[in-house]
Design goal:
By secondary structure, the chain is α/β, with parallel strands linked by helices. It is 40% helix and 16% strand. The protein has a domain of 128 residues. It has a 7-stranded mixed β-sheet, sandwiched between helices. A two-stranded antiparallel sheet has the order 6-7. A two-stranded antiparallel sheet has the order 9-10. The longest helix has 21 residues. The protein binds S-adenosylmethionine. The site of S-adenosylmethionine has 21 residues, from β2 and α10.
């Protein structure tokens, strides 16, 4: 099983996954191999990704078997939109709608309100004007499937022409000279993005349910053994100090018409609220069982006490997630994990997860390590006690089988 996972020559620019940027996405052919290998081994009727992000695994599952049930969850409304668009694709009238959009972009149609807090900090005034024109045109597209595709294609354009640096997923302002030197080709770039990419969205999948919420709220509502395969890459630490998926998404979320987003109502309270509501993000005291504490002790003993709370809060959520995941999974769990460093101590998420799953009656099928060839997060992320701290540059793939399926 899983004979090749390196895919060193895989270029996501050639498929649908390269049509949008999202942090820490999984490598599509690796996920495809996992799913197809498991499908050969066992009848898989349903696939669940509890942290679907940009929908890599769910899309690959849907391509492998159109009839299977696809279920996902993510707290980030941008992840929800991205995955929805990848799965449902575009309507057959997409070329007519592209023509209509281009027509509206060259005329002066109805103007809709477009403003958000600190808008001109993150977008130059003329860039706002160009984005507004595109936004006004998209709102006028009546076909929802195509309209959502048009929003999707706008996300990378917003980021590219914004005042935030491309070297980090955080919102981090560029130097003033760099902001002044941005060439405003917003409309032209957008038109070529939709023209060049629309054909990648011709596969339509409808047998899917995406939950836009906190996975810890969703899991207790799901029936036991609901999914044959659960496949995901969970966050490997709190978003604020690992990958800020929420902050990364805010400029796009503020630009997309709210009517076209799945929202719970709190998402725009501030720029970091999605991150602080994500796994391990809520500030509180954690309460872990003695067994859970025993898994963390080897790491905590080397970490400064002031940093314990951050680790404990994350793992309280993470173990709750694993408890729920084991309950709702009928046959297989496939995880892509990374280890993170706190206080120069690498926290072995893989080993902690392995031990935990084994107590939940899941047996190891495969463990594999994959080097991450290209990374936006710099290999050295911060300085602790004046020494550089390296960030994750390997990912670990773990496939587990529920014990009662073992012959
Ligand atoms: C590693 S990313 C998943 C990337 C995805 N596998 C892909 O290929 O794009 C982790 C995701 O978990 C989501 N997330 C974090 N905490 C969450 C929570 N409590 N409930 C639901 N989703 C959460 C983040 O918004 C992010 O999209």
């Amino acid at each position: 099983m899983l004979s090749d996972i390196s895919f060193k020559n895989y270029k996501k620019s050639e498929d649908i996954h390269g049509t949008i940027l999202y942090p820490a996405i999984m490598v599509a052919p690796v996920q495809k191999n996992i799913i197809s290998d498991l499908m050969r081994r066992e009848d898989i009727q349903s696939v669940f990704d509890p942290f679907h992000g940009s929908g890599t695994a769910l899309y690959e599952a849907a391509q492998l078997a159109h009839e299977i049930q696809i279920v996902g969850c993510d707290i980030n409304p941008l992840a929800n939109l991205i995955t929805k668009v990848k799965l449902q694709g575009v309507d057959q009238n997409i070329r007519e709608d592209i023509l209509q959009l281009k027509d509206m972009l060259s005329s002066h149609g109805k103007k809709y309100n477009y403003t958000f807090p600190n808008m001109y900090k993150w977008l130059r005034e003329d860039i706002v004007a160009s984005l507004s024109r595109i936004r006004d045109a998209i709102i006028e597209i009546s076909n929802e499937q195509n309209r959502l595709f048009f929003w999707y294609m706008l996300c990378d354009i917003i980021r590219k022409y914004s005042n935030t640096r491309s070297s980090t997923y955080k919102l981090h302002i560029k130097e003033i000279e760099k902001i002044q030197s941005i060439d405003n080709d917003v409309v032209k770039s957008y038109i070529s993005a939709i023209d060049n990419n629309a054909d990648k969205f011709k596969h339509n999948t409808w047998n899917f349910t995406l939950h836009k919420c906190d996975i810890l709220d969703l899991l207790p509502k799901l029936n036991a053994a609901s999914f044959d395969l659960s496949i995901t890459s969970p966050p490997y630490g709190d978003n604020a100090t690992t990958v800020p998926y929420g902050q990364f998404s805010m400029l796009a979320l503020h630009t997309i018409d709210k009517k076209d987003l799945e929202l719970e109502g709190w998402e725009f309270e501030n720029y970091s609220i999605i991150d602080s509501k994500s796994l391990g993000g809520k500030k509180r005291n954690a309460n872990l069982s003695p067994y859970q504490m025993s898994l963390l002790e080897p790491f905590l003993s080397k970490i400064a006490p002031a940093k314990h709370r951050k680790v404990l809060v994350f793992f309280e959520d993470y173990f709750k997630f694993l408890d729920g995941l084991c309950r709702v999974t009928k046959k297989y769990i496939a995880l892509t994990l990374g280890n993170r460093t706190v206080d120069r101590v690498s926290i072995n998420l893989t080993d902690i997860t392995k031990q935990y799953l084994e107590t939940k009656k899941f047996q190891k099928l495969v463990h594999a390590t994959r080097e991450i060839p290209i990374k936006r997060t710099p290999k050295v992320t911060s300085l602790v006690y004046e020494k550089p701290v390296s960030s994750m540059n390997h990912e670990f793939i773990m496939i587990y089988e529920k014990e009662r399926f073992v012959a």
